[in-house]
Specification:
With about 300 residues, the chain is α/β, with parallel strands linked by helices. Helices cover about 30% and strands about 25% of the residues. It is built from 8 helices and 10 strands. It binds guanosine-5'-triphosphate and magnesium ion (MG).
């Protein structure tokens, strides 16, 4: 009997661009589930988040990445490095911009990182739900002059507008081969990682100023009750200074409670189980520039 491996359009795609343009939103929309956290603040994503988008005749392995920005401290330098490293060894680059933002300067902006890359690059102009359609053409034409994009697609990652066309375009650029990942596993990140990220997302949503950028979350324990009724999760929120600890905890513990409730609800949806979430806040002095702690966080 002949043993043939199914051949499909299959390969790796890096999703890169400036912060806050909607990269993580797009990954979640394509997957039909939330694995990558989203917030209205820039520099939300800190890691490379792999998502496997499967169709009957394709498998797109998409890498969501931190927004490329001018980095100063070691944490941000690591984040930008993760994004730039993802440009190597992919079959296609998807570069995303926000239609409401001014056109980038090709010499100084993130676009300069595409120069010299031989990999075919698709430009996604995201958030088109925010502008009138008739204003799009001049924007597309202006981007055409900036770089030799294979194609330029206006999309709304949030509303899923233009994503079918994106998949078609990616399939046209991907090689034919076997699927690289099993087709029933949407990501390579662990549940523990996503849980920590969901807590971090709530901190991005519920606190201001420098607090989100001074915060990291680690999972201390993750215990499933033998009768599978409830999962108990203990997590630590690390901050850089003791004044920040007070802000995260809030008056009478209110802020921490808000963060915990919002995170728990989302973790319950993810795990499809009841969750008991316990949060601690710990000062890890100046952790964003502490190489050892950054290593502990997986950087
Ligand atoms: N109106 C509109 N808003 C969007 C769309 N896509 C994303 N957003 C919003 O834009 C903000 C940033 O979205 P993210 O997906 O976190 O952006 P990102 O590029 O992953 O950001 P970083 O991880 O910080 O680099 C959030 O408030 C999203 O809800 C879109 O298509 N339309
Ligand atoms: Mg992101």
């Amino acid at each position: 009997m002949e043993n043939t491996i199914e051949q499909v359009k299959s390969g790796m795609v890096a999703l890169v661009g400036p912060p806050n343009v909607g990269k993580s939103t797009l990954l979640n929309t394509l997957l039909g589930m939330k694995i990558s956290i989203v917030s209205p603040k820039p520099q939300t994503t800190r890691n490379r988040i792999l998502g496997v988008v499967n169709g009957d005749d394709y498998q797109i392995v998409m890498l969501d990445t931190p927004g490329i920005h001018k980095a100063h401290n070691p944490l941000n330098l690591e984040m930008v490095k993760i994004a730039l490293d993802s440009l190597a060894d992919v079959d296609v680059i998807v570069f995303m911009v926000d239609v409401t933002m001014p056109l980038p300067d090709p010499k100084t902006s993130t676009i300069k990182h595409l120069e010299g890359c031989k990999t075919p690059t698709v430009l996604l102009i995201n958030k088109v739900d925010m502008v009138d359609k008739e204003n799009l053409l001049p924007i597309i034409e202006a981007y055409q002059k900036l770089f030799d994009f294979k194609t330029i697609l206006p999309v709304s990652a949030m509303e899923g507008d233009g994503t079918d066309l994106l998949i078609e375009e990616l399939c046209a650029l991907l090689p034919t081969g076997p699927r690289l990942y099993p087709d029933d596993i949407p990501t390579d990140v662990t549940e523990r990682f996503i849980v920590a990220e969901m807590i971090r997302e709530k901190i991005f949503l519920l606190t201001g100023q420098e607090i989100p950028y001074s915060t990291a979350v680690t999972i201390e324990s993750f215990k499933e009750n033998p009768n599978k009724q409830i999962v108990t999760i203990h997590a630590t929120i690390h901050v850089e200074r003791s004044s920040q600890k007070g802000i995260i905890i809030g008056k009478g513990g209110k802020k921490l409670q808000q963060i915990g409730t919002a995170a728990r609800q989302e973790i319950e949806t993810l795990l499809d189980q009841q969750v008991l979430l316990k949060l601690w806040v710990k000062v890890q002095k100046d952790w964003t520039s502490n190489p050892r702690f950054l290593r502990e966080l997986g950087f």
